[in-house]
Design goal:
288 residues, alpha/beta, 6-stranded mixed β-sheet, 7 helices, 27% helix, globular
């Protein structure tokens, strides 16, 4: 049975607003293996949630169920008042990290424009009326400005650093003005400075636009100051709540079914020790 902790609701979310995502008693079984069972989760407008846990625990599976890409074995997921479905235009989705090679000459702005045009690499569609083309260009520029990428948006994407590429991919997901932003390991392969920078940008976007954010991460530390709640997935169970509620010795020991110790350093970082061998990887610690 999944473990649901009492959740801290962010002060900026009006209590009268309905959740944008409701996960009720959700269970996913893939290939005869139970990934997680009886998950309960409500996500409010403007909330920033980090989905954490060891490799293979089901973090991305939970995202894909919310996106309507994976069917539930039991329970239901409601997104903006309707059953979860594939291709929901109200969700901006950034899949697991893509890398553009040095010889890719497509401009960053054109990558962002793909969020509107699909197969058209930033070139105006001939049947678009002039005012619609201006509107599309304005939306692309707004998304670029939101992620702080204006200085390099017109350079070839292959020439940009990893953090710059990732900002433009997030802008691509934002160009449709989504009410929910879903990011699957957007910090993977980035250095600590870029991880913290991306987390800060996403926090600002959620505050300014009111979009709810679900972000899968291996390490909570780069996003710790930005997030409102965590969703911790381990051993088929899920714990939801503030970082202070969930990332504790007691809660993680219960999830893993073995003794886990949670340490907090003087500068606020979290270190988790004691996982079984195949699940060590979640909170890497690199001394400065």
């Amino acid at each position: 049975m999944a473990d649901l902790l009492s959740a801290r609701s962010p002060a900026f979310v009006p209590a009268s607003l309905p959740p944008v995502i409701q996960v009720e008693d959700a269970t996913v079984v893939l290939g005869g293996r139970s990934i997680y069972q009886h998950v309960q989760l409500n996500v409010q407008p403007g909330e920033f949630l980090a989905i954490l846990g060891p490799n293979g625990a089901g973090k991305s599976t939970l995202l894909k169920a919310i996106l309507g890409l994976i069917p539930l074995s039991a329970g239901q997921i409601t997104v903006l008042g309707h059953p979860a479905r594939r291709g929901n235009a109200a969700i901006g989705y950034v899949p697991q990290r893509r890398h553009f090679e040095n010889d890719v000459r497509v401009r960053g702005r054109s990558i962002v424009r793909l969020g509107l045009d699909g197969r058209n690499w930033g070139l105006p569609l001939p049947f678009l009326q002039r005012n619609k083309e201006r509107e599309a260009a304005a939306r692309v520029q707004q998304a670029i400005d939101l992620v702080g990428a204006a200085a390099y948006a017109d350079r070839p994407i292959g020439e940009l650093y990893g953090g710059e590429q990732q900002r433009l991919l997030i802008a691509q997901a934002l160009v449709t003005h989504p009410r929910i932003l879903v990011l699957d390991e957007p910090l993977d392969s980035l250095d600590l400075r870029n991880q913290q920078g991306i987390a800060s940008v996403i926090r600002q976007i959620s505050r300014e636009t009111g979009a709810a954010v679900l972000l899968v991460a291996h390490d909570v530390n780069p996003v710790l100051k930005a997030i409102d709640r965590v969703v911790y997935v381990a051993h088929g169970q899920v714990a939801v709540g503030s970082p202070e509620e969930v990332i504790t010795t007691e809660t993680l020991s219960r999830l893993y079914g073995t003794q886990i110790e949670v340490l907090r350093t003087s500068d606020g970082r979290i270190i988790v020790v004691g996982q079984v061998e195949e699940e060590v990887s979640y909170h890497p610690y690199s001394p400065k």
